[in-house]
């Protein structure tokens, strides 16, 4: 690769699909591994789908409140749509890391691990796409906040879901 060229986020997304495809293949091929792989894939997908819009909202809402935009709904939709492009890959990776750590941690530990994993994957991704300084810090902060909020929602759902759902999934 020439100096000054960076790998596109699409390349990193494609690269991330390789272990996900491998995990899906093992899930289908080895029934005994389903119990180990399913939570990792599920959590990665949850974080990958819900994490970027959460970070987008954290950026968009203060901007929309202070700006005099004639179409705030359109701007909000644009920011949320673009959030998957900039944060989809680190959110998937952060979700997979969180899923691997969940069984070993309690409630507060899960929250801290989610914030740390998502901050680390977001900062690493920001460095890989050649962001510097404040860009890396912003990506890490948004990743940490999104991971913390998602894991808090997961813990809340686990605690407050109906009793019948707890016995059926346990």
What is the count of β-strands? 0
The major pleated sheet works out as: none
Q: For the CA atoms, what is the radius of gyration?
A: 18 Å
Distance between the termini: 50 Å
Query: How many structural domains does the protein architecture include?
Result: 1
Portion of residues in beta strands equals: under 5%
Structural class: mainly alpha
Overall mean pLDDT stands at 80
Q: Can you tell me the residue ranges where pLDDT is under 50 for at least 5 consecutive residues?
A: 1-5
The dominant shape is globular
Helix segment tally: 6
Helical residues, percent: over 70%
Q: What are the secondary-structure elements, in order, as H or E?
A: HHHHHH
Main attributes of the structure:
single chain; 170 residues; mainly alpha; 6 helices; 0% strand
Walkthrough of the structure:
29% of the residues are buried. The protein has helices at 9-29, 34-66, 72-101, 107-128, 134-160, 163-169. The protein has one domain (22-34, 41-159). The chain contains six helices and no strands. With 170 residues, it is mostly helical. The longest helix has 33 residues, at 34-66. Residues 1-5 have low confidence and may be disordered. It starts with 8 loop residues before the first helix and ends with a helix. α2 (34-66) crosses α5 (134-160) and α4 runs antiparallel to α5.
